[in-house]
User: Fold these one by one.
Assistant:
Number 1:
Amino acid sequence: MGFTIQDMMISSEERYRMKYLAGKNGWSNSISWVHLVEDTTIIRHFWGKELAVTTGLGFPTKEALMELARHLVQRHAAGLIVNIGNYIEKLPDGLLAYCEENDLPLLTVPWEIHLSDMMKDFSIRIFVQGSTDEQVVNALIAAVEQPDNQEAYRKKLLPHFDVDGTFQVMVIASEGLDSMDTVDRRKLSYRLQVYLEQITHNGSFFYYNSFFVLVANAITPELFIGLGEGMLKRARKRMPDRPIYVGVGSQVMDIENLSVSYRRAEVAARMAMRTKTALLQFEEMGIYRLLYSCTDAALLAQMKQETLSVLEEHDRRHNSNYVETLQCYLEFNGSIQAMAQSMFTHRNTIIYRMNNIKKLLGTELATPAERLPYQIALYIRDML
C-alpha cells in the first residue's frame, strides 16, 4: 500500500523527533508525495495522498491553521506535519479535535530539524516503495490470471505476504471507471486509498479490469468487511456525487487460490452496482452466485426468452401483468390468499390469471421441477 504514515513514524520518531498528535485512524494512509505548504494555493492541485509540511509561516493564527486542515481534508491529503518552535509554539486544541474527527494525521517535528533533509528522505522512501508496489501488483495479477503457473508469482510475493495464509479480495466499482481519464481515475484511486484504514503492507490496492481491487492477507473476514464499510462511509461524506459499490469475495487459503476470491468479488461488485447495493458479499448472493458467475450473457438471455417470452408478449399486447403474477405465485409457493394480499387483488381474479398463465406456459406448475425453470428465468430477468 505504499509508504505510509506508519512507515514514516517508524523511521522518523527518533531520527526527526516526530510526534503523532491526532488523526490516529489515518495511520495506514499511504503517501504519494511530500509538499512544503505555506499557503493554501498549492493544495488546489493536490490529487490525494499528498503529505503537507509547514513551518507555519503562512498560518500565524488558529483560524489560518484550521483553514489549512479543512483544505487538506477536502483534497484527501495523507497528513500534515507542522514544524514547531518558531512561527508556531503550540497547536490549538481545536485543530487536534478536527484532525481526529476527520482522520487526518497531524504530526509535529521540532524547529531544529532540517525540513529539506527530512523531505528528501521521505521522497526517496516513497520512490523505492512505489517500485516495490508495482512489482507486487504485477505478481498479484499473475496469480489472478495464471493461478496454475505459480513460478510467475509465488516467489515474488513471498517477501511481502504470508503466501500460505489467508487471502481475501475486495472489488470496488463506480460508474464509468473504464472510460474515465487516466489522471482522474488515478486521483479517485488515491482518494479511496486514503479512505481505507488499518491496512498497510498486508494489502495491495490497484486498478484492474475496470475495477479498483484490494487484496488483503492474513486479516479476519470481519475486519475486512469493516474496512469496506469504513471506506464507504468516508466516501459518502467526502465524495457524495460519486457512488461507490463494493463486492467482497470469499476468504481463501494460499495465494494459489487468490483467483477464486477475485472472481467472486467481481461477481459481487457487478451485482452491487446493478442493484445499487453499497456493499455485497458473495456469500449473501444466493442463487445469483451462479447466475452472475456465468460469463455467457447470450445464454442467460436465451434461457429467459425461452421461458418467459410468451407471458411478456401477452403483457405487451393486453397491458396485463402475468409476469408479475407468476413471480408472486412462485414467491408465495402457490398460496392464492398470500398472492391476493400482496397484490391487493381479489382471490378470484388471481385464480383466473393463474389458470390463463398455466395454459399459456403449458404446465401446471405443480412440482418443484416444473417451477424451477421459471424461478431461474425470473432471477435472470431481474439481473439483465
Number 2:
Amino acid sequence: MPSQKKRQVGKDLEAKLPKVSKALISFSLIIPRRNLYNHSTKQNGVDLALKDQILKVLELNPSYGHRRVALALGIGKKRARRVMKLYGIKPYKRKARWTKKKDYGKPPSGYPNLIKGSCPLKPNIVVAGDFTRLIWNGRIIYLATFGKSLIVYTDQGSEYNSKEYTKFMEGLGVKISMSAKAGPWENAYQESFYDNFKTDLGLEFERFETIGEFVEAIHQTISYYNNRRIHTKLRMSPFKFKWKFLTKII
C-alpha cells in the first residue's frame, strides 16, 4: 500500500477509534508516527511551492533523481526526497541494459586493466570507450563513444579484440586497456553513461520520423549530457568541472 494511502487509513482509524494511540496505529501500518499528525498550513504551502520547482526541474531533466534535483535547486537531498515521496514524483524509468551475448564464453583478451587503482590528474590521459545499439523503426543504429588519448579503456567485447581494432590503436601509439572478463563494473563509466543517455534521449525512438531527426536528437542529448546535466559526484556538469579545472592550472 502506498505511503499516502496508509497515512489516510491511519487518520481514518484515529477518527473512528479515538482511544487507540497514534503509536499503535503507526506500528500496525508500518508508517512513521509523524505521518498521523496534521502538517501546518504554512508547511503545506512551502511543500507545494517546492513541488512546483521540482516538476520544472524534471521537465528539463526527466531522469533526475532526488540527489540531482537537490543540487539543481540548492536544497538538501533529504528535503527533496521527502517532497518527491510526499507527492509521488518519480524520475523517468530506465529499462534493462543491452548485453553482448555473443561475447559469452570467449577466452580473455590478454590485455590488462592499466587504469585499475589509478586516478588521472589531467585530461586526455585515459578515455573510456564502448558502444551501444539503438533500435529505430526496425533498424539497428550503433552509437560509439570514443576519443584519442594515451590509454583507451574498453570492455573485452569481440569488436575491441579484433585485429583491425588492435592494429589501428597500436598504429596511433595508444595503449590498449581492458576490464576483466565478465567484469562490467570495471567499465562502469560507460555503463552509467549509456544508461543515463538512453533515459535522457527518451526510450520511444519511433517518435522520430526520419533518421536525420534521430541523429540530431542523439547529438542534442550528448551536448546536454556534457554541458548542462548535473553529475552527482561532480555536483556540476562535465563542462563546468573541466572549465574549473583548467582555470586553476592556467
Number 3:
Amino acid sequence: MLPHHTLAAHYATPEAKPQLVTRLFEEGAKHYVLGRAERIPLTDNFFNFFTKGWALRQVISLVIVNLAGKMAAILVGWTAPAAALALWFVPDLLLAYHVFAPRAQGLVRVHWRFSTARREVWLTIDDGPDPEDTPRILELLAAHGARATFFVIGENARIHSGLIRAIAAAGHEVAHHTHTHPLAAFWCASPATVNRELDAGMEALRAAGVRPTRFRPPAGIKNIWLARALRARGLTCVGWSVRGLERWRGDADAVVARAIRGLAPGAILLLHEGPRVPAAIRVEAIRGVLERLRDRGYQCVVPGPEQLV
C-alpha cells in the first residue's frame, strides 16, 4: 500500500492516471473515515468495529466515494476538466439522493412496506397531536374499527400530553416525528442537534407514558448522523408507500385519490393532521380514505416489527 504522502505524486504521471479513480477508491476505503481531511491508518479490527452495522457502513461508503471523487477531480483537473467536473459533482448528487429521496437506503434503513397476506394497510398520521383534529380522528378510527400510528411532534406532545394518552388508550401507536419538526435544516443538522431532536421528543412522550420504538424524519429527509442516533435509542425508521400530499392542489377528494393510488396489501399510507393542512381538507381527507378502504375490503392495522420491509 502506498504511504499517504506519496499517493498524489505517484499518480501525477500521465501513464498512471488511467488507474487513478480505481486506486483512490481502494485507498480511500482503507484510510478515510467520515470525511476527515487527514489520512488515518486503521487496523482491520478497529475498522471492522467502527463500521459495525449495515447503515453505518453505508454512510461511510457514501462519504468515502464523495471524498475520493473530490481528490480525483483535483488530480485530473488540469488535463481532463470535464472528467474533473463529473468527479467533483456526481458524488454530491449521489449523497443528496440518499438524503432527500424518502425511499433511499444509503444513510438509514427505511421501511416503506410491510409483509402481509391479507388486505391490510398501515395508516400513519403525522404532525400531531392537535386539539382540534386528534379527537375527531380518534372518533373516525373507532367508527371504522381501524388502528393507526400517530407520528407526533415532541413540542405538541408536551403541550397536549392528554391527547397522547388518549391515542394510546384507544389502542393506537404513538411514534416519534422529531421534537420541533426542523424541515428546512434537518438534513444538515449536527450530531448534537440530531440527538437533541430525538431526546427531547422522547422525553416529552415518556412524560405522557409512552416509549416510542418507531421514527419518521420530517418529509422523509435524512441525515448522515441519523442511523447511529436511532440505533442508540432503539428506534426504527419508517417511511411510506403512498401519501395524500395535502398541501398540493385540490380538495379532500383529490387527497383521497392520491392516497389510495396504487393501493396494495402491505402499503404504508401517510396523511397529516394539524394547522399545516388546509382547513377544507383537515380530517375530511382521513374520513374519505377510511371510507374508500372499507369499500375495497381493506383493514387498517399496525404491523409488528418482524413484518416491516
